[in-house]
Amino acid sequence: MKDLLEKLSPWLFTIAIFALWEAACRIFNFSPFIMASPTQAFGAIIQHWQPLLRHSFVTLWTTMAGFALAVIFGVALGLIVGWSRTIYRGLYPVMIGFNTIPKVAVVPILIMWFGIGEIPAILTAFLISFFPIVVNVATGLATMEPELEDVLRALGARKLDIMLKVGIPRTQPYLFGSLKVAITLAFVGTVVSETIGANAGLGYLIALAGSNFQMPLVFAALLLLAVEGILMYAVFALIEARFTHWAFRSSMSAAA
Amino acid sequence: MSSSVDIDDITLTYKGASGGVLALQGTTLNVKRGEFAAVVGPSGCGKSSLMKLVTGLIRPDKGDISVFGDKVRGPVKIAGMAFQNPNLLPWRKVADNVLLPLEIVEPHRHRFRRDNAKYREQVEALLKTVGLSGFGDRYPWELSGGMQQRVSLCRSLIHEPALLMLDEPFAALDAFTREELWCVLRDLWQKLGFTVILVTHDLREAAFLADTIHVMSARPGRIVMTKAVDLPRPRDLEICFEPRFTDIVHELRAKIAEVRQT
Ligand SMILES: Nc1ncnc2c1ncn2[C@@H]1O[C@H](COP(=O)(O)OP(=O)(O)O)[C@@H](O)[C@H]1O
Ligand SMILES: [Mg+2]
After folding, report:
1. Per-residue pLDDT tens for B70-125?
2. Among A240, B106, B154, B185, which has the highest number of CB atoms less than 10 A from its own CB?
3. Which of B56, B91, B104 sits opposite A152 (nearest CB)?
4. What is the ipTM of this complex?
5. What are the backbone angles phi and psi of residue B181, rounded to the nearest 5°?
């Protein structure tokens, strides 16, 4: 019984929040130009399903493209940074500085360079999601037990051997943990960019519908955005559990 | 008997932010081929540093080290090592953990794929000698601390090294498990005949296992006493209660107390 309740609890909470939202809209009787209730939002989804589907798809693929770039470059840079202490020391401040820049501030530049369209969205998703991947991969390498390295070096292992046999496998839980964070950040990047300058995507749709006071449509787009985010998060949580089950059982589960 | 490890008057300094730390000075130590040597000394006196010097992982500022007649210029490429922490790879099964050195050491690494079945048999045989028959398919986290340390010992021995370096390998274990593992190590050594340098702070452990015990001074560490343990072999745990054994332990204890004071 308790198990069942625990299993159902995410659904129960979601339904409860929607119920609260609906109740608040009815009690305060908001103007439809300011706020939409869940029923109105779902109504808008049904009514505008075609454009919503098209824009959802654009947001999804641009996010995935940016995220894929972030994984490729993030893993590569993370391995380079984690490879040597000197590079780690040298690049760390640069990367912190880079990460501190709010990516919203970069979007206008990207739009200037690449024009209105999907490319700025892809690049913003990439820029925003790439950092946690680098940091986690580098941390996974840098926190390798020095004694284990000694064991291998006393056998004549080269740096590459140590990386392949120990460094890269032990980085996996750190990597997969960071992918869950990175994918949600990538959505943020895409939508920010689409809101500022695009001609497709859920961000664009929200900005457009907002300026036309079509609140039900705005909330419909927000809901779809949440659904996409949750789905992708779930996919990467599954991949993580699949590939790094050992980390959950051993003491290495501290990776975040 | 010929020499296997020759440490001749070495000095080692660690350079740190707050000046250098003189870890070893004037350290001289000789271990014969096939000998079981133990190094005891107060904490922080440079025992682990000595192990790293012998295996060529760090270089001394001054002095020479030879291993089996060859001057140590870089990592020795042959030594087996085990530490207090078993350091097993949690994503590999026990057997694959033990196989790891064969994936690295020449000439095995080039035959690894071809002779995989043969190597796996060797692993199983070695696991059997330490009492872990049939545990090859488990993951390390499924094993107790003592069992993990047995696996770690197997990993340090699978490539049949002529030199085994043990840095407080049993320090984290409970007393019963520790004594069990003394016997495991004793039997392995008697069977395989490698040279051992065992760092420990357990004087009974040193007296039970070693042929020769070297006592180090507080930092900067050097050898202040070398004690031959002339207890007959094979030794049994019962020997720990005999007067001639306890006499040795008392003598070592007095010496350590003395060097800790100064
Ligand atoms: N990598 C290092 N950098 C600086 N100092 C070190 C380093 N390793 C050890 N030391 C110092 O050298 C001394 C000897 O260390 P160690 O060989 O680990 O001693 P032991 O194993 O006998 O406890 C200690 O004082 C320690 O602080
Ligand atoms: Mg030590």
Report:
1. 899 988 888 899 999 999 999 999 999 999 999 998 888 888 888 889 999 999 99
2. B154
3. B104
4. 0.87
5. -75, -25
